[in-house]
Amino acid sequence: MGLFDKIFGTRSQREVKKLQPLVNKVLALESEYGALSEEALKGKTAIFKERLAKGETLDDILPEAFAAIREAAWRVLGMKPYPVQLIGGIVLHQGRIAEMRTGEGKTLTADLLCSEYRKLNEQYFGPDMVVDDEIAMEWARIPHFYYNYYVFQYATGYSAAIALSRKILAEGESAVKDYLNFLSGGCSKSPIDLLKGAGVDMTGPEPVNQALELFGKLLDEMEELTKDL
User: Fold this and answer.
1) Spatial CA neighbour of 207 closest among 120, 103, 198
2) In the prediction, which pLDDT does 106 show?
3) Residue 78 has what pLDDT?
4) How far are the Cα atoms of 6, 10, 110, 134, 140 from residue 2, in angstroms, in the given order?
5) Are 55 and 72 within one domain?
């Protein structure tokens, strides 16, 4: 590193420094966007499109658009892009190349998913199964990895179904009526509210704990049945 770089930083460091005020604008909107309702957050897309149609540029709306994406990622995935990832996104938006070193968190990339998915297959199937190179790409056709917290939807769905079935077995006709009302509700209310009407409260831990308890019992039964095989 030359004397100039030591004093003023490398070219990359200077470029990052230029982008920091823009990143700070995104981060400053965190509380505001975190307080938005689901509908208000979704509605930002239409607002951004309208602003672009009226003559604003992508650069004009970038801080707010990134803040909306950051909040959506938090609600759907439980993760927010790190500031360094915001810098990378801005650089890519500008049509340039961004390279990020891995810090405390790991940037989610296709290469990382391929590597991790292959490792999982090797661990799952063991040494007796040949894991070929193509299996590493299988994650790309499975929506569980990247679409609206897909696995979480499975878990809540199973939990709700088990709770509903237990109510029917325990309470009989009245629970059947509640279940049919739940089905006929369609999209008239949110799924959480429809389930509450059927006597299942998915806002608390009880349905999930009951499901885990049932799965535990089923596993114990399977182990007992197969212990002599």
Assistant:
1) 198
2) 58
3) 75
4) 6, 9, 36, 46, 44
5) yes
CA distance linking residue 106 with residue 113, whole number of Å: 11
Q: Residue 193: its pLDDT value, please?
A: 87
Cα–Cα distance measured from residue 166 to residue 211, given in angstroms and rounded to the nearest whole number:
10
Domain of 23, in residue numbers: 9-93
Q: What angle do CA 121, 103, 78 make, to 5 degrees?
A: 65
**Mean pLDDT per 10-residue run, the chain (229 residues)?**
46 80 92 92 93 93 92 82 84 74 59 82 85 84 64 78 92 92 85 88 88 90 84
Same domain, 29 and 70: yes
Q: How far apart are CA 65 and CA 44, in angstroms?
A: 8
What local confidence, expressed as pLDDT, does residue 8 receive? 41
Single pTM value for the model: 0.44
Of 68, 93, 118, which marks where a domain is finished? Answer: 93
Number of domains in the chain: 3
In a domain, 175, yes or no: yes
User: Do 202 and 218 fall into the same domain?
Assistant: yes
